[in-house]
Amino acid sequence: MPETALGPLRVLDFSRVLAGPFATMLLADLGATVIKVERPGTGDDTRSWGPPYDATGQATYFQSVNRNKTSVALDLGDPDDLAKARALALEADVVVENFRPGVMERLGLGPEVLLAANPGLVLCSVTGFGSGGGAALPGYDLLIQAVGGLMSITGDPAGEPQKVGVALVDVLAGLFASVGILAALRHRDRTGQGQRVEIDLLSSLLAALVNQGSAYTSGGTVPARMGNRHPSIAPYELVPCADHELALAVGNDRQFAALCEVIGLPGDTRFATNPARVEHRAELRALLEEHLGRRPAAEWAAELSAAGVPAGEVNDVAGAFALAERLGLSPTVDLPRPDGTSVRLTRNPIGLSATPARYETAPPDDPGQLTLPLPGWS
Fold first, then answer.
1. Rounded to whole angstroms, what are the CA distances from 246 to 1, 59, 220, 241, 310?
2. What are the distances in angstroms from CA 88 to CA 75, 93, 122?
3. How many CB atoms lie within 10 A of CB 28?
4. Which residue out of 44, 170, 200, 366 is catalytically annotated?
């Protein structure tokens, strides 16, 4: 078995739903031993979030972020189970939780208590709005997309604000959490001292607004919905062809010149530079529709790609996986279940030459696989 990047790191995961479980799955993929603490009987909320379900009746939502973990069922309101949870935390390298602020303290599992008993512990807390003025607010992805500005820049400018088609803020927060945990572990390796890692969904979204955020913070411009257009680049949008839309992502003047040559668009000083194209985007759009509307999108995509112009058809999810397969990216992995079946999931996109991601076990079928105590987690 190849060496893993994070073995024998021990992670105790109290988190539910998406952001925390996504972070701990990434750590598990890279070799950490992750024990997921679930409510007896019902388990993680997402075990009941369906349809869709897979062939064995498991909710595919839960499957998406819980591979390579084992599960223990503990009722944290029960003194005996709480004592077991505390014992696991005192042997852990990392504890991840996404309770509302104050819950871990009320359980006797707060950072002061755990770090006093386990000074090398890294304790990661994921909240919706932080532990200050927003501590009492529930942190659901749709809510964060709305109040965090993402919906205001997503969708048709003539329509209503739109959410992204996946719980993107949770995914972003999970990524930030995993980076924060790894940074804290690096510090612990040098000093022996653990620390608290705090991630909140609203701050994660604001950081991920990148250029749209700096348009406001640095330029004083409040971005608005532009549909599929880009505020600073043209053409960077969907353009209708003879059958359906083509995605054009022309990022520089060289690519635009190649686009003009392929589709037969004559030179025009209005479009000589990107700032000029942004200024005259309506006139450019009309010309692109006229020329690209003469042929199917697939034909244009092939010719433009061959000429070095970023262009492609709009795939559904099945088409996206098929494209990745054709490109040799091996986008899926099959993980074995105890009953001899397997579940197919999206692979970890991190490529490591010496310590690749592992794919050992399917998400746990039921909460409570493990029997406690687990001395040394061995």
1. 44, 34, 33, 7, 10
2. 14, 10, 14
3. 29
4. 170
User: Greatest CA span in the chain, whole angstroms?
Assistant: 77
Whole-model pTM: value is 0.93
Neighbouring C-beta atoms of residue 201, cutoff 10 Å: 28
Q: Which residues contact 84 (CB under 8 A, 6 or more apart)?
A: 72, 74, 372, 373
| Single-letter code of the amino acid located at 3 | E
Omega of the bond prior to 52 within 30 degrees of 0, cis?
yes
The 3-state secondary structure of 111-130 reads: HHHHHHHCCCCEEEEEECCC
CB atoms under 10 Å from CB of 13, counted, come to 30
- Residue 336 CA to residue 360 CA, distance in Å, equals 7
What is the Cβ-side half-sphere exposure of residue 293, based on CA atoms within 13 angstroms? 7
The secondary element (H helix, E strand) that includes residue 176 is helix 168-191
Q: Is 13 annotated as catalytic? A: no
CA 23 vs. chain centroid, Å, equals 9
Contact assessment for residue 338 and residue 360, using Cβ atoms and an 8 Å cutoff = no
A 10 A CB-CB count for 147 gives 16
**pLDDT string in tens for the chain (378-residue length):** 578 999 999 999 999 999 999 999 999 999 999 999 999 999 999 999 999 999 889 999 999 999 999 999 999 999 999 999 999 999 999 999 999 999 999 999 999 999 999 999 999 999 999 999 999 898 999 999 999 999 999 999 999 999 999 999 999 999 999 999 999 999 999 999 999 999 999 999 999 999 999 999 999 999 999 999 999 999 999 999 999 999 999 999 999 999 999 999 998 999 999 999 999 999 999 999 999 999 999 999 999 999 999 999 999 999 999 999 999 999 999 999 988 889 999 999 999 999 999 999 999 988 887 777 666 665
Strands annotated E in the chain: 10-13, 33-38, 69-73, 94-97, 122-127, 195-200, 236-240, 245-249, 311-313, 332-336, 342-346
